[in-house]
C-alpha cells in the first residue's frame, strides 16, 4: 500500500461499514422470515463467535425460536465446558 | 447420475449468465455431457453469450408446449459437441413456464446429460423459483456490494425452503458462493467487501472468486464464454471454479492487487 493510500484508507474504510450494516440487516431479515430455516446458519455463526473465547462442541449450543405471551423469543443455550479459565487464546 | 445446477443470485446484472456459460463450457471441456438452459423468459441472452443466437429455432417454451421435440430445440455447441444450449422463449407471457412442464423437460434431459445448468433470471418471481426448484446444487453469484449480498441471503432462504429437495426432505441443496467482479485492489484500499467479509455474512462455502476483468466484455462481444480465454484472469478463475465443482482442490488466485511500479505504489492512483 502506498503512502497516499494509507492516508486515504484512514478517511474511509467503507467496506467495514458495509459489512456492519449488512450483518445487522441480514440478521433482522432472517428473523423476519421466521420459521426455522435460518436457525442452522445462526447457530453456526454463534458457535464460531463462542469458539473464539471458549472451546465448545457443536451440540453445546442450542438456539430456538419460541413464543412467550404474545411475542416471539429467540432462546440460546450454551453449555460451557466444566472448568473454563476464561481465555482461549487465538 | 445427472445433476441439476442452478446459477442464481436474486439481483440482476451480477454475472449469472456469464457464469452459466463458462461453467457449462468448462464442464463440457472436461468431457461431461452438458446442457445449459436459459430460464429468463422474455429476456433471452444466454444464446448471445454462447455465440449461437442465429441458430435458435425452437425454445424452452416450445418444448414444454409440445410445438417441437426436445431434440429439435437443443442447439449443439460448435466448439464442443457434448455441450447443448436450450434458449429462453421471447414470449411476454409470464406463465409460459409451468412447474409440471419444467419437470418433464428436466427429466428428459437427465436421461442424456451429466450436468444440467439452469441460468436463472433475476428476482424472486416465478422464473427464478422454477430455475431453482428442481436443483441438486446452487451456485449463488454475488458481487462484493451491499445490495447483491443482501439479495443473495434472500435467495439462500428460498433455496432452503422453496425447492423440491427442501420440501421432500431429500437432503439439502449444496450451496456454493461464487464471488464475481472482485477487485483485489479496492478490497486492499478498504472500499470493497472482501471474500472473508462476504463468507462471514452469508455463511456458505466459496466455490471461486472471479476478478473484475475487461476480457469478460470482449468475450461477450465475440460470443465466446470467457473461460475459453485462457490468458484472462477471469477465464482462469472460472476454470478453477469448475475444477472445484468437480471436487478438485485448487487454491484461490488473483486475490492480491497486481504489482505496480514504484512511483505508482508510492503515490497511489491507477
Ligand atoms: N468478472 C467480470 N468482470 C467484468 N464484467 C463482468 C464480470 N462478470 C460479469 N460482467 C459484466 O456484467 C454484466 C452482467 O453480466 P450477466 O452475466 O449478464 O449478469 P446476469 O445474468 O446476472 O444479469 C455484463 O455486462 C457482463 O459483461
Ligand atoms: Mg442473465
UniProtKB/TrEMBL annotation, chain A:
Function: Prevents the cell division inhibition by proteins MinC and MinD at internal division sites while permitting inhibition at polar sites. This ensures cell division at the proper site by restricting the formation of a division septum at the midpoint of the long axis of the cell.
Source species, domain of life: Bacteria
Annotated organism of origin: Pseudofulvimonas gallinarii
Listed name of the protein: Cell division topological specificity factor
The keyword Cell cycle is annotated on this UniProt entry: yes
Biological process per Gene Ontology, one example term: cell division
Keyword annotations from UniProtKB, A to Z: Cell cycle, Cell division
Record Pfam families: MinE
Gene (name only): minE
Leader sequence residues: none
Listed GO MF terms: identical protein binding
From TrEMBL, chain B:
A single cellular component GO annotation: cytoplasmic side of plasma membrane
Family from the record: Belongs to the ParA family. MinD subfamily.
Organism: Pseudofulvimonas gallinarii
Example GO molecular function: ATP binding
One Pfam family from the record: AAA_31
Binding residues for ATP: 11-18
The protein, known as: Septum site-determining protein MinD
Keywords assigned: ATP-binding, Cell cycle, Cell division, Nucleotide-binding, Septation
Highest classification ranks of the organism: Bacteria, Pseudomonadati, Pseudomonadota, Gammaproteobacteria, Lysobacterales
